[in-house]
Each structure stands twice: as C-alpha cells, then as structure tokens.
What we know:
- It is a single chain.
- This protein is α+β, with helices and mostly antiparallel strands and 419 residues long.
- The chain has two domains: 132 residues, Galactose-binding domain-like (Jelly Rolls); 230 residues, Nitrilase/N-carbamoyl-D-aminoacid amidohydrolase (4-Layer Sandwich), CATH 3.60.110.10.
- The chain is built from six helices and 26 strands.
- The strands form five sheets. Strands 2, 3, 5, 8, 9, 11 and 12 form a seven-stranded antiparallel β-sheet that branches. A six-stranded mixed β-sheet has the order 17-16-15-14-13-24. Strands 18-19-20-21-22-23 form a six-stranded mixed β-sheet, with helices on one face.
- Strand 18 and strand 19 form a beta hairpin.
Amino acid sequence: MKSETAKKCDNIVPLFTDSAWRTYDLPYGEKARFTVAEDGQRATIKTTSDYGLGKWICTVQVDGGAFYDFSAACKTELDECDAFLIITQYDAHGRMPIREHVKDTVRDGEYLRFFDKLDITEKTVRIDIELWAKGKGAFAVWERPTLVLSEPLPENKVKIAAVQMKWDGEIGATEESRKHEYLKLADEAGAKGADLIVFGEGLYSGGIGLSLPVRARERDEKMLGFLSEKAIEHNMYIVFNGVEEDGDHYYNTSFIIDRKGRTVGKYRKTHITVVEYEEGYTPGEGFPVFDLDFGRIGILICYDQFFPETAKALARKGAEIICISTAGDDSHACMSLAMDSGVYLAVAGMNKENNFGWGPTRVVDPLGNLISHTDKNLTLAFAEVDLNKKVRRFWMSTGSAQSTVHDDYRYEVNPHSFM
Length: 419
C-alpha cells in the first residue's frame, strides 16, 4: 500500500520559500548568487563572469515503488547542457540507487521545459530535486517544479527486424530474383509481427553495373512501391535504401514507409565514400529524426557509422532507435556507437561473417550488447525492446548510482569545448 505522502493531482514540491529548499555553489572561487520571488514561485541563479555553478536543491518525501509525473520550467538563454535538472533517489540509509537527468527537455521561446515519468525504486524514501545553472555569467530563473503521483508508465514494446541479404555481385542478376528476395524477407518479418524492418544498403539495384539514373528510375522507385504494399499488408514500418534522383543530383537515400504504405521521411547519406563521389553521388546535409507511432528514430547509412558524431547528433535530437543500412560490416564499431550515443541500433548488412561468429546484421542495445544477430545464413535479426524502460548504467557521471546513459550523454556534453 502507498502512504499518504501524496494524492493524485497534488503537487508535493513546496514553494521556494520553504525550508526544504537549499542552495549549492562551488567550494572555491566567487560564489553564485541566489534570489527567491516574494510569492515563492520562482528562484534565480546567477554566476559571475568567471566560470561558476549554482543549484537549488529540494528534498521531497516519496512513496517507494510509486510513479510520479514531473515537470519544470526555466527562463534562460542557456542551453540544455548548462541549465538542467537532476533527480537523486535516496533509501533509508542515505544510499543513492538512482541519480539521473530528467529525461525530456524542449526549448519553448525563452523557456526550457522539462518532463519525465519518475519510477521510484521500492527502497527509495526521498528524492532531491536539483535545479542547475552553470557557465560564465550564467543566469536562470527557475519556476517551482511539479511532482504529482501518477499511474505506472505502460510498456512500449517494439519488434525490430534487420534484414540480412546476399550481395550476389553478379552482372546480369535479374530484377525479378532480387525482388523475390526482398519481398520474401518482408513477409518473414511481417509473420513475426515486426513493427519496423530495416533493409541493407543498395542491395536491390547495386552491384550489377547499372547507372545511377537507371537505378533510381527503373529499379529503386519500383521497389518502393512493392514494399509499400508489404507495409500495408503487415502493418509495419519499412526502412528501404536506394538511389534517389533530384534534378541533376543523385543521393544514397534511405526512405521510411509507414504502416499505410506512405513514404513519410527520408535521410540522405552525409558521409559518402571517395568511390561514391566518383560514381556521381552528392552528399546529404543534416541528421533528421522521425516520429513514428511507437517512438522517434534516426537513420544512418554505411560509412556514416564510422563517424561517432553522426549517432550522437541523432541521440541529442531524441532518437531512441537508429536504423543503419550498410553494405559492409563494422564489427565492434556498431557496439561502440550504441554505447557512445545511448540508443538502440538496428543494423542491416550484407551476407558475410566476421571472425567473431556473428554476421553483419544485428540489433544492439544502448549498453553495446548484441541482443540479436545473424550468422552466415540469410535470415533476420529480430528483437523486441521496450522503449519506455530506461536503460541505466552504474557510475557513469553522477556518482555511486545508476543513471540513464542516453541522458548523461545528451546533457553532459560540453559544447563550448568544440568552438
């Protein structure tokens, strides 16, 4: 049974004038300045022109095993790496089972707005809400946060299929044979109830001596149509890679087909190889993310994944799954990429096996673990993941506690060091 700590719809965070609030600044150098509005609804942090840091901290009693809806707002010109929120959970002995960033932050005009569903451990008895501002001459006006007892967060399970296909490389390979292979594997993924299927790079029209115009107009555009029918038939999303023609330019592009067979997004490969430049490709620009009915995804293509900044850019935009269509095998690199960005990867490669016993097609979790992979046989890598379950790791940045890897990377990068 839950205690009477809170009733639903009651905000249990006190006003800033309450003794539950305290301030923190650096033990050395000039101190940050703190003020509180007369009504107790707002509090400010201002650092000096030299580097400084300030925090407002509030201790709140909570129910172990409960869930809470949390929200807050901060009026500031600082970005989310310099004005952010940390929630620390404590048990009765003062130990920290969890200390992590509030999950979601959006810029809304002059404000940063923060949201999360807090899952309180069974042994937690209290939490500290930490409102941060740091930097040179940093200034932030924090509004009183809201913490309300809520229902548990439902599961958000997503079934992911990554396709492994044979790269036959034979001049004269027929369009019909490749079409058959694509549609057969789409049916296999659909039979398993896949929500999302990812195909490899250029495996429908590539490797058989066709020009880019022919590949774009006569092959890949047709396959988009065929796969649209499969998306409708199996009620799934499909990521298909091929050649895109746009005026006089040709792009190595991955398209997103939704459950109704519509092309709802595309990503153009940004890091094209020397060979691709010589073939006539144009590089894409930017790293878009796409909101599907189960969550947010990003896309990379082959050589993109050898540049860690690509996945990090997608993670900072909130991508939960990164789909990678590739014609090669990056072996351990994709596991590092997942760990560096803190997101799931669905990698669809071609038919070969490395020296480690797994094939080039795999699903990797945010900790870099292979949760599904192929071997030398033509098959699917298939996995079910719960996007609402936070993936945590011990002693990342926040001390002797578990924290969410995705959010540590998002909020703790130091953008000023790259200027």
